[in-house]
């Protein structure tokens, strides 16, 4: 029974990683950039809900809607100001700018909301499910997170494969020049990608904070990196890969804490990641890279 | 033609060395005349450390053309192995210079060995996947050092990854590495002169490597792997060589770091991925593959947050803004074009020269 | 093309450097020429420096200490200063990093610092103490609790040391028979937490209880505690020892609650502040015990005044770190008075006088009724064990 209960914990943690990883992988897949600021957009999403629900006392639904709007606007603004001028520059230059944006958002959060942690009121009101006489415990947040993940995953896949805007995204990710020649507005397509990615970050933000209800300006940083690892795990750029990678990462983390060593669990998670990448160099569901001769 | 080109690189390298030496002379003159503040004096050794780290990473990023996010890990290995040695031989070798020299060798060799161990599996990967795996290794190193307990007593060394109690030491035992509490009481053997000598050494290694047969082989792998392979260049060997040398140089940076402060701990702040990313910022901002640029970027970005102290609470916010602005200013195509226009107005001479 | 970019880049960086150089020169000449936010080094006052993290993950501790110390400085100045001499306080950020802390120390030296009230966290404190002992500059750390923080003889501290807290906690649990089976959840990557844990485990051998689980987490892994809690639960621990800071403890309490684990939680001074977490469900903290020198809900005049002032100035309930900062400034003031220091004395003379005076003074502080110091620099004060009852601290019998 112990094992199954740990497995459930792993899935709970993994579902949060998966949700964040979806946003990561989406932006990476289209814009081909590692958006290191993604974790900090999550933090802003969390604070938006906190301000509206806990400080102003309004409905959680309003908070969630506002958070998605705030993050989407923020994501598009950051893209316009910081990333767009560097579109034709080296990908590393954009990576460094993203790090700058990440520092900026953290310190902005620090100035506005101070460093004191805030306790976040869960936006999920579904109670825990207890199985096998209470030996197994599945929290309502976990259920909501997993369902949200699956819905987002399917919606994203549908959007990219079936809609015009989605196919434009794929075209931009494959070849910007050719897409431009085909009459696709590359700039607005990339803006749209950031808008969707940041909107997803808002969702990840309030679900992360509902599952682990302490909010500081640095709340998003570590889950952001873990989600990045999860996205690589599953094959970066692949949407179902992000989901699988996230869940697996959570399970490995919890099981290594439970059965090997709680001090070394970080090292074990990274070790497994390295092993996976050595066997399958582009992640679990990643596309093979064909070498051009 | 060939001679001319060689001459040009030689000249260029000479300028880089001269910049370092002249800056050193200037700073020394300022210290002697009492014109340098304590803050600046305290910053000299850290600046040297970060310059070395930027140069080491630029060897991997600029010359080898691979992205490493784990250089803080190699620095960590260099720092801990050398600090371990220095603390152990604090009484056995009373001569600080000799002790530091030996510590330096140990730190560099240990880090280079780690470079080889990590390089063998990792260098098969490419691009972002290589970056994430190096990041993973850096974090593993940090995590392991945080649970490592090493002590020494009359019976020899004791090692544990649990706690001090499980070292089972005699009463006369001395705990050298105390888990997360790290190593305290390292002698502060490093100073600015040593730091500058080490920068010159690092520069010498990197520049000579770049301009040698080996360096050209490495760069050919960067520019076109398949072409390089087809002319018989042993890709794995050269990649590994560049990676291990870079790791060894990062180890030197770590030795300098460890012997500047009397306490050494492996925190996310100093040896985590954030630090590796910081080194990458130096390299990218200074120009990938441009050693002189790396030096300048490392100096500027280390000084910047200290010079912004007057802004108190807004310090790190402004730092972030400046970082983004600098990045856009130096790398954005539109900005480069704009600057060229301005330059053309002011220096027609120069443009016509380059047009030739 | 490439060369051009490089040259432009060089020009740009050089421009930045020269600008930076200007700013620096200005600050070298006179400290009054510095930016507006900078504290001016007023002639004829005692210049006290403070160091701690006000950005980064540890910012909350540095900010609290800065605010607490500032209140003390203002109070002393309002009352006429020390022997008629006022105090000037300048607090610098170190991001919780040893190297940055030494930078901050050097910066304060340029400012003209005569006495150091810092640093807030342990690792930087050890590094700074090595520098301040070279300069023979008096240092008192409000909250640097690792044993080595007061290694040199010019360094004193206000808080308990980590080993002390570990030993005292184990003794307290054993002597009051609070539990038979104890589980520990600690941060293995943190100096404070692992320092306490080591001594706690050692002392536990002498005491009449058993440690059934010792589970760690790390700085990179501090959101999910389900495994650690379940281990403690399945081993049947009737007390969980939490030698950690309150932001993680708040998460542990929430997660233990949702797992239906009912037990006693026992912590050290790092747990203080848990009731101040905004929006925190205080019912969760009901019955939590902690060994702390300060409780914001204490009813003595001193604490009440301090808490009221702090709330008014900074809009928050002060935690133990704020109280440590406050007491450190009062200790400095008392030692300055006792040592008959004058602001025109050299740094080294002030240090010698204060070192001697420190062992002779006794102050009425927020973190102890009669705090005295010995030559090693450690304070002698009573730890209070408090339990959270109805959302407030109350002293345990």
From TrEMBL, chain A:
GO terms for molecular function: L-isoleucine transmembrane transporter activity; L-leucine transmembrane transporter activity; L-phenylalanine transmembrane transporter activity; L-valine transmembrane transporter activity. It is a multi-pass membrane protein. GO terms for biological process: D-alanine transmembrane transport; L-alanine transport; L-isoleucine import across plasma membrane. The chain crosses the membrane at residues 6-27, 34-53, 59-78, 90-115, 135-160, 192-215, 227-255, 267-286. Keywords: Amino-acid transport, Cell inner membrane, Cell membrane, Membrane, Transmembrane, Transmembrane helix, Transport. It is found in: Cell membrane. Pfam families: BPD_transp_2. InterPro entries: ABC_transp_permease, BCAA_transport_permease. This is Amino acid/amide ABC transporter membrane protein 1, HAAT family. It comes from Acetitomaculum ruminis DSM 5522. The lineage of its organism: Bacteria, Bacillati, Bacillota, Clostridia, Lachnospirales.
From TrEMBL, chain B:
It is a multi-pass membrane protein. The chain crosses the membrane at residues 12-31, 43-65, 72-90, 96-122, 129-150, 192-210, 279-304, 316-336. It is found in: Cell membrane. The keyword Transmembrane applies. GO terms for molecular function: branched-chain amino acid transmembrane transporter activity. GO terms for cellular component: plasma membrane. The keyword Transmembrane applies. This is Amino acid/amide ABC transporter membrane protein 2, HAAT family. It comes from Acetitomaculum ruminis DSM 5522. The lineage of its organism: Bacteria, Bacillati, Bacillota, Clostridia, Lachnospirales.
TrEMBL record, chain C:
SUPFAM superfamilies: Periplasmic binding protein-like I (SSF53822). Transmembrane segments: none annotated. The keyword Repeat does not apply. Pfam families: Peripla_BP_6 (PF13458). Keywords: Amino-acid transport, Signal, Transport. PANTHER family: LEUCINE-SPECIFIC-BINDING PROTEIN, PERIPLASMIC BINDING PROTEIN OF ABC TRANSPORTER FOR NATURAL AMINO ACIDS. GO terms for biological process: amino acid transport. InterPro entries: BCAA_transport, Leu-bd, Leu_Ile_Val-bd, Peripla_BP_I. Residues 48-391 form the Leucine-binding protein domain. This is Branched-chain amino acid transport system substrate-binding protein. Belongs to the leucine-binding protein family. The keyword Signal applies. Residues 1-20 form the signal peptide.
């Amino acid at each position: 029974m112990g094992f199954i209960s740990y497995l459930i914990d792993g899935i709970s943690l993994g579902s949060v990683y998966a949700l964040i990883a979806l946003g990561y992988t989406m932006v990476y897949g289209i814009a081909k950039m590692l958006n290191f600021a993604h974790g900090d957009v999550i933090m802003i999403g969390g604070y938006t809900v906190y301000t509206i629900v806990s400080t102003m006392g309004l409905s959680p639904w309003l908070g969630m809607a506002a958070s998605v709007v705030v993050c989407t606007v923020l994501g598009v603004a950051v893209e316009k100001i910081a990333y767009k001028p560097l579109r034709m520059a080296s990908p590393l230059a954009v990576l460094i700018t993203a790090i700058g944006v990440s520092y900026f958002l953290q310190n902005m959060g620090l100035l506005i909301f101070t460093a004191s942690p805030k306790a976040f009121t869960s936006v999920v009101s579904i109670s825990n499910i207890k199985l096998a006489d209470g030996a197994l415990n599945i929290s309502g947040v976990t259920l909501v997170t997993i369902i949200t993940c699956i819905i987002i995953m399917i919606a994203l896949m549908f959007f990219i494969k079936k809609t015009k805007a989605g196919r434009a995204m794929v075209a931009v990710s494959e070849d910007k020049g050719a897409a431009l020649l085909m009459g696709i507005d590359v700039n607005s397509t990339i803006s749209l990608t950031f808008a969707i990615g940041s909107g997803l970050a808002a969702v990840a933000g309030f679900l992360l904070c509902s599952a682990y209800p302490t909010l500081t300006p640095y709340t998003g940083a570590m889950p952001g990196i873990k989600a990045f690892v999860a996205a690589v795990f599953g094959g970066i750029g692949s949407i179902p890969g992000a989901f699988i990678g996230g869940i697996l990462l959570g399970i490995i983390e919890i099981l290594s804490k439970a059965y090997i060593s709680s001090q070394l669990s970080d090292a074990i998670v990274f070790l497994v990641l390295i092993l996976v990448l050595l066997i399958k160099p582009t992640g679990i569901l990643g596309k093979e890279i064909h070498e051009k001769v | 033609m060939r001679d001319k080109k060689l001459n040009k690189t030689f000249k260029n390298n000479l300028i880089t060395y001269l910049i370092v030496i002249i800056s050193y002379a200037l700073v020394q003159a300022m210290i002697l005349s009492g014109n340098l503040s304590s803050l600046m004096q305290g910053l000299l050794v850290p600046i040297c450390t970060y310059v070395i780290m930027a140069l080491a990473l630029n060897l991997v990023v600029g010359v080898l053309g691979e992205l490493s996010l784990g250089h803080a890990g190699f620095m960590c290995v260099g720092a801990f192995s050398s600090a371990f040695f220095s603390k152990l031989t604090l009484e056995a070798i009373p001569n600080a210079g000799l002790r530091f020299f030996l510590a330096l060798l140990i730190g560099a060799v240990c880090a280079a060995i780690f470079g080889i161990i990590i390089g063998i599996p990792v260098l098969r990967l490419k691009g972002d996947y290589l970056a994430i795996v190096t990041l993973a290794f850096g974090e593993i190193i940090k995590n392991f050092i945080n649970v490592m307990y090493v002590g020494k007593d009359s019976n020899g060394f004791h090692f544990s990854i649990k706690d001090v109690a499980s070292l089972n030491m005699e009463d006369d035992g001395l705990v050298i590495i105390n888990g997360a509490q790290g190593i305290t009481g390292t002698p502060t053997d490093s100073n600015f002169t040593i730091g500058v000598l080490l920068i010159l050494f690092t520069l010498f290694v990197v520049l000579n490597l770049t301009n040698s047969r080996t360096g050209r082989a490495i760069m050919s792998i960067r520019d076109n792997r398949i072409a390089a392979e087809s002319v018989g260049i042993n890709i794995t060997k050269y990649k590994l060589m560049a990676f291990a040398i870079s790791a060894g140089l990062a180890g030197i940076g770590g030795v300098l770091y460890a012997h500047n402060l009397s306490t050494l701990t492996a925190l996310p702040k100093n040896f985590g991925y954030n630090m590796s990313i910081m080194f990458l910022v130096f390299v990218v901002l200074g120009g990938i593959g441009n050693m002189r640029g790396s030096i300048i970027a490392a100096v500027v970005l280390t000084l910047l947050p200290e010079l912004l102290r007057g802004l108190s609470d807004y310090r790190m916010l402004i730092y972030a803004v400046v970082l983004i602005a600098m990045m856009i200013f130096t790398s954005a195509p539109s900005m480069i074009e704009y600057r060229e226009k301005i330059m053309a107005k002011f220096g027609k001479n120069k443009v016509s020269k380059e047009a030739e | 093309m490439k060369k051009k970019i490089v040259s432009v880049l060089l020009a740009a960086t050089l421009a930045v450097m020269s600008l930076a150089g200007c700013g620096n020169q200005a600050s070298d000449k006179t400290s009054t020429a510095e930016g507006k936010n900078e504290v001016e080094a007023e002639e004829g006052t005692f210049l006290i420096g403070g160091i701690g993290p006000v950005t980064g993950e540890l910012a909350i501790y540095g900010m609290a200490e800065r605010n607490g110390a500032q209140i003390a400085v203002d109070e002393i100045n309002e009352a006429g200063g020390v022997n008629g001499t006022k105090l000037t306080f300048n607090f610098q950020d170190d991001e919780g990093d040893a190297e940055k802390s030494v930078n901050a120390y050097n910066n304060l030296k340029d400012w003209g610092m005569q006495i150091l009230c810092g640093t807030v966290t342990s690792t930087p404190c050890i590094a700074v103490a090595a520098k301040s002992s070279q300069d023979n500059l008096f240092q008192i750390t409000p909250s640097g609790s690792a044993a080595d923080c007061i290694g040199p003889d010019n360094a004193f501290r206000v808080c308990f040391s980590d080993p002390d807290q570990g030993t005292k906690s184990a003794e307290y649990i054993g002597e009051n028979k609070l539990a038979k089976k104890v589980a520990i959840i600690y941060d293995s990557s943190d100096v404070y937490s692992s320092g306490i844990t080591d001594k706690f485990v050692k002392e536990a051998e002498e005491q009449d209880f058993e440690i059934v689980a010792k589970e760690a987490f790390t700085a990179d892994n501090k959101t999910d505690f389900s495994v650690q809690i379940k281990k403690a639960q399945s081993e049947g621990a009737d007390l969980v020892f939490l030698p950690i800071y309150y932001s993680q403890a708040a998460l542990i309490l929430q997660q233990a609650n949702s797992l239906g684990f009912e037990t006693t939680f026992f912590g050290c001074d790092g747990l203080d502040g848990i009731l101040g977490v905004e929006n925190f469900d205080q019912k969760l903290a009901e019955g939590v015990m902690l060994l702390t020198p300060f409780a914001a809900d204490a009813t003595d005049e001193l604490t009440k005044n301090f808490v009221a002032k702090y709330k008014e100035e900074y809009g928050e309930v002060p935690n133990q770190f704020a109280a440590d900062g406050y007491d450190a400034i009062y200790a400095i003031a008392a030692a300055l008075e006792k040592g008959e220091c004058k602001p025109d004395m050299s740094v080294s003379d002030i240090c010698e006088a204060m070192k001697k005076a420190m062992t002779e003074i006794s102050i009425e502080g927020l973190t102890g009724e009669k705090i005295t110091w010995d030559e090693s620099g450690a304070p002698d004060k009573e730890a209070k064990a408090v339990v959270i009852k109805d959302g407030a601290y109350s002293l345990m019998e």
